[in-house]
Amino acid sequence: MYDIQLKTVSKTYLGTNEPAVKNLSLNVEKGSIITLLGPSGCGKSTTLRLIAGFERAEGGSISLAGKIVSDENTWVPPEKRGVGMVFQDYALFPHLNVFDNIGFGYKEKDRKSRVMEVLELVNLKGFEKRYPYELSGGQQQRVALARALARRPVVVLLDEPFSNLDADLRVTMRVEVKRILKEAGATAIFVSHDQKDALAISDVIAVMKDGVLEQIGTPREIYRYP
Ligand code: ADP
Ligand code: ADP
């Protein structure tokens, strides 16, 4: 079963001539991690924004967990799509501690236990009272990931989550993020322009260029790796 399905989706921004994404079709299997890999400006972020519902596609359709969230007749707003997002700048609330950052907006009865559960998943037990400025880049990244996972999203979208980490931490976090996503059983799309990220983290790599998918396959198929 596919958790994410894009069928011939396009997006042209106002005031531009060339579509940022052209007739893109993509299927992501439940529980798998796919990387959109390609140079700056090739349409990776736009693809994520279409899936998250921050932009509306022209034509085609988008389905999440088998339900159409966007087509000619359907529009499900971002907050109802069950999407968890992780951004390159983490986007943590500076005035909230780790516990409240993760639990923000999560109103279920199991709030406390769920926050503690995801804190454990990202190896940050004991950090719940700290503020973002008291954390390293890698720890802030884990908090952002924990926040995205807390609501048990259908899909997790990660936009260049490592770009603010130094080289050593990046190597560690590739392994960590993969472990965390796999333990959570998440279906994830990860965006990067770094081939090493893609090789380390992906079940499937989709190479984008100028708004289209150039190639899609396992790391082995794309790079004869490992
Ligand atoms: P990537 O994530 O691969 O760097 P983007 O999806 O951000 O690529 O951008 C794809 C293309 O769309 C680029 O040419 C970019 O300049 C353009 N673009 C992105 N966002 C906007 C916007 N809000 N308005 C106009 N053009 C945009
Ligand atoms: P990234 O490389 O992570 O996609 P960008 O710096 O390209 O980030 O884009 C940051 C923000 O600016 C995004 O919201 C994107 O949609 C918007 N943006 C990108 N390119 C353009 C553009 N040419 N015109 C207007 N907005 C843009």
From TrEMBL:
Cytoplasm as UniProt keyword: no
Keywords (A to Z) from UniProt: ATP-binding, Nucleotide-binding, Transport
EC nos: 7.6.2.9
A GO term, aspect molecular function: ABC-type quaternary ammonium compound transporting activity
Keyword Disulfide bond in annotation: no
Enzyme class, spelled out: translocase
Domain ABC transporter: 4-226
Protein name per its UniProtKB record: ABC-type quaternary amine transporter
